Amino acid sequence: MEDGSVNLPPGFFFSPTDEELVLHFLYCKASLIPCHPNIIPDLHPSQLAPWELNGKALLSGNQYYFFTKVNENRARENGYWKDTGVTEPILSTFDKKVGMKKYLGFHIGEAPQGTETSWVMQEYYICSSGFDTASYRSARRRRKHDQSWSKWVLCKVYEKIRSQQGVNCYSDDDDSGSELSWLDEVYLSLDDDLEEIGMPI
């Protein structure tokens, strides 16, 4: 984990669906069921800026994964995570609601006058009403007074993709084939300038 990589067999890539993140990782964490391999670490968002996650969170493509406490402070000295007001339900393959996904954006400065950055965090929560299995019910009975059942959330952090029209979106897809890098845009603007003054390209 020190270099931000995971020791997976050749050809394997960590790319779980929202349902898999909730049922196979967050559910195991919250119910204290051992998860093997235990590759997602516990972190405190208040101690790290999003660009400092490399080598500390699980990195897969352009996305960082980690667990944190539900009521963990999301602010740090030079910035804070702000709720965007966007919340989505997470449905199972049988159309049962198993969790919720909340979006937060990272702002530099002090709230509420901070400057928005391109960093986004998705927080995954368990929706207990969506589980209807014997294992879940028995686990909940055994931990009726154990607050650890609901204290964990799973976080996914990434940078927003800027489209060619300059519009920001919350997509976390790593589709470099349809997006221009900032360096490509600089080269294209140089080509346009040369055409305007009639110089050969």
UniProtKB/TrEMBL annotation:
Pfam families listed in its UniProt record: NAM
Key words of the record: DNA-binding, Nucleus, Transcription, Transcription regulation
Domain of life: Eukaryota
GO BP annotations, alphabetical order: regulation of DNA-templated transcription; system development
PROSITE patterns: NAC (PS51005)
GO MF annotation terms: DNA binding
Domain NAC residue range list: 8-160
Keyword DNA-binding: yes
Name this polypeptide is given: NAC domain-containing protein 104 isoform A
Lineage: Eukaryota, Viridiplantae, Streptophyta, Embryophyta, Tracheophyta
